[in-house]
């Protein structure tokens, strides 16, 4: 038996459970740019929760939409039935997507969006008579959530090695991180477009007729802010076109203004065939994800199907009323406050702030795009605890939430951030770095 306030029952995700339960750090409230920690102090949110609270915490319009909908229509199935909010949310979302990607499949998370996108790609190839195209291509250091599809195309060994053989027929491009040529980049690094040619090599190795789709994050977030080199995504798009391979952008992080436009595709000027979304879609107030699909992909699947269900895929909570209501309210805030553009307006100031850490103790690289920043620390040889993890704990206690991955600090504050708060983030990190051995 455990007591209600015992910490042992909750098996926490992606957590050092043994450490946490000895040293619990918790939040009890959130508003605007700040959390309130259980210990009572305010914590400036330098990571938008987990890259997801793009409009800041506790937004009244979202809270009210959820409250109202919960009283009105707590749940309605979307299998063979529907409710207006799901259709409205899909229509509104489709207007933000690049030209042509206007068919929306709803999920409950980024992981589900990724696995849905991979399945849609496979179903499409089959529907158009290219059923030999079953191979999926991911990229080293890609993070695509934790479903079996996502960890198979993903490129994080730690997320793969506990779980057996995963999906078969998957291959990977090399990642684009090249500190020797691209350290201290502001925006897109200059070198590395030719890494996209890895896809030509995989086509030569496996045959284009075996490849269904390639999935990449426009900017890889979870593995430490890896920004695509100038020309890389264009080249990948051209190779996909040449060999009739679908291109999927995983925009779970880059969607909804994170790098200055509704999508990374728009900001970076390259249009994929499928986009996966989650996080900022509801400002994280209710779980929801989505897959935006090129209309031709959608139509091909529908038209090739016998009368009846066209895609044997979905979730009980696809288009859940509370999530749909939250999404509609969130998209309204993004529009009325011009929040996507804010990441561009603040980009220069943000870049100067991030790069002011060049020269600080342990810092070996800084990089940025939109309102994302990466600060890479020199790994501590042989020590069990990463330097960045120590910075994370000290920052929390000093009133700043950051995200760390390996020895990289990743920053992605809500888009409502003001310049003094940018200064505060950087000042706190600058003060902590010298205290870490
Ligand atoms: N894809 C990307 C690019 C992500 O960054 C994440 C989460 N950080 C996911 C997928 C998975 O999302 P979720 O945790 O909501 O399943």
Automatic annotation (TrEMBL):
Cofactor dependence is on: pyridoxal 5'-phosphate
Name under which the protein is recorded = Aspartate aminotransferase family protein
**GO molecular function (one):** transaminase activity
One Pfam family it belongs to: Aminotran_3
SUPFAM superfamilies, per the entry = PLP-dependent transferases
Can you tell me which family this protein belongs to? Belongs to the class-III pyridoxal-phosphate-dependent aminotransferase family.
Provide this UniProt record's keywords sorted from A to Z: Aminotransferase, Pyridoxal phosphate, Transferase
- Which InterPro entries does this chain map to? Aminotrans_3, Aminotrans_3_PPA_site, PyrdxlP-dep_Trfase, PyrdxlP-dep_Trfase_major, PyrdxlP-dep_Trfase_small
Recorded source organism is Alteraurantiacibacter palmitatis
């Amino acid at each position: 038996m455990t007591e209600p306030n015992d910490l042992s029952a909750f098996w926490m995700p992606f957590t050092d459970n043994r450490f946490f339960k000895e040293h619990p750090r918790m939040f009890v409230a959130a508003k605007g740019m700040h959390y309130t920690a259980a210990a009572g102090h305010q914590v400036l949110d330098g990571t938008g929760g987990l890259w997801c609270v793009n409009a800041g915490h506790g937004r009244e319009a979202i809270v009210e939409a959820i409250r109202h909908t919960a009283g009105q229509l707590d749940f309605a199935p979307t299998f063979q039935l529907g409710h207006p909010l799901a259709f409205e949310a899909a229509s509104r979302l489709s207007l933000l997507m690049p030209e042509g990607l206007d068919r929306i499949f709803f999920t409950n998370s980024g992981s589900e969006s990724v696995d849905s996108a991979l399945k849609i790609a496979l179903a499409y190839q089959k529907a158009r008579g290219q059923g030999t195209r079953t191979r999926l291509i991911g990229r080293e250091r890609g993070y695509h959530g934790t479903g079996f599809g996502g960890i198979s195309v993903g490129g994080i060994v730690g997320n793969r090695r506990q779980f057996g053989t995963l999906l078969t027929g998957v291959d990977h491009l090399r990642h684009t991180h090249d500190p020797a040529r691209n350290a201290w980049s502001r925006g897109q690094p200059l070198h590395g477009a030719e890494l996209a040619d890895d896809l030509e090599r995989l086509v030569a190795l496996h045959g284009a007729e075996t490849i269904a789709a390639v999935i990449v994050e426009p900017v890889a977030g979870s593995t430490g802010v890896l920004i695509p080199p100038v020309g890389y995504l264009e080249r990948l798009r051209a190779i996909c076109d040449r060999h009739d391979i679908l291109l999927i952008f995983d925009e779970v992080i880059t969607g909804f203004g994170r790098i200055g436009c509704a999508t990374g595709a728009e900001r970076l000027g390259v249009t994929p065939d499928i986009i996966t979304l989650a996080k900022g879609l509801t400002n994280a107030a209710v779980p929801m994800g989505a897959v935006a699909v090129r209309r031709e992909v959608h139509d091909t699947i529908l038209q090739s199907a016998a009368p009846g269900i066209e895609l044997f895929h979905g979730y009980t909570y696809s288009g859940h009323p509370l999530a749909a209501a939250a999404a509609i309210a969130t998209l309204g805030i993004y529009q009325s406050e011009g929040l996507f553009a804010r990441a561009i307006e603040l980009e220069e100031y943000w870049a100067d702030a991030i790069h002011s850490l060049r020269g600080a103790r342990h810092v070996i690289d800084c990089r940025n795009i939109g309102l994302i920043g990466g600060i890479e620390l020199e790994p501590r040889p042989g020590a069990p605890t990463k330097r960045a993890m120590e910075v994370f704990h000290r920052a929390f206690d000093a009133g700043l939430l950051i995200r760390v991955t390996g020895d990289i600090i990743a920053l992605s504050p809500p888009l409502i951030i003001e310049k003094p708060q940018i200064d505060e983030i950087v000042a706190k990190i600058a003060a902590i770095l010298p205290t870490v051995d």
